[in-house]
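pinning this so it doesn't scroll away 📌
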Amino acid sequence: MKKVKSLDDLKRMKEGLQANIALREKSEHPEAMTQIKVAMATCGIASGAKEVMDFFITNLAKRNIDAIVTQTGCMGYCYAEPTVEVRLPGQDPVVYGDVDVKKADEIIEKHIKEGELVDGIIPVNYETIDKKYSGGI
């Protein structure tokens, strides 16, 4: 964090933080916006979820993409942390695993901007597949 040397520095810092908070949390109609949820349970934080969340907040703002970035608890995919859920307006959510800042950038550029899915998706039916084959062969 930068040192505050003047009142103007403090005002600029406040404006920047308020913009980030608005991007992250405020919306009257969240279903009409891109929503990004970053799993921030202990396993996610230990795997780098904080950096991923900060990257999304900063880079969505820089690219003028109107989105809501929030944190959530454990999604149940501890083996694939950090995990991120992306929901584009009118579409089902997609959960990505093993998201680092490079993958987050790819998610922004390809999935959010172009609507193209990228590698690293955790399938919706993962639990069903896992349970089906967990009995051994």
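📌 and the second one:
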Amino acid sequence: MGGVEPSIFSLIINGEMPCHKVYEDEHVFSFLDVNPFSPGHTLVVPKEAAKTLDALSEESAQAIGRVLPRVSRAVLEVSGASEFNILQNNGPNAFQSVFHVHFHIIPKFQDGRGLAWPFKSNPIDHEDGARMAAAMRDLLS
């Protein structure tokens, strides 16, 4: 690994740390979170050791995209929840604490268990929004 310490998720994927495995294929590993927000809180992790989503390969991103709905359905069925959040953080200022791409599937229950949403949004500045959207379209074309 070129002197870089493997993340706890790499250790779990490699079988060097225990977990409650939910799913595994060639590109993706999924397991229960050890500090869950609610029962059934599950992590979906690419086996590729990219730190943030923007650094993830197309192949791993496609694999995650295929697996997230399947694992989400299993989480809902087993937990008994009918609603859930998908959470994915990139960088320390975005509350990422393990620097290996990962998606949280967090069941939400009517009694309040699950992810709380204390954030406040502000109305968009349409002039600034038009400018930003045009710049993004240019980068994506």
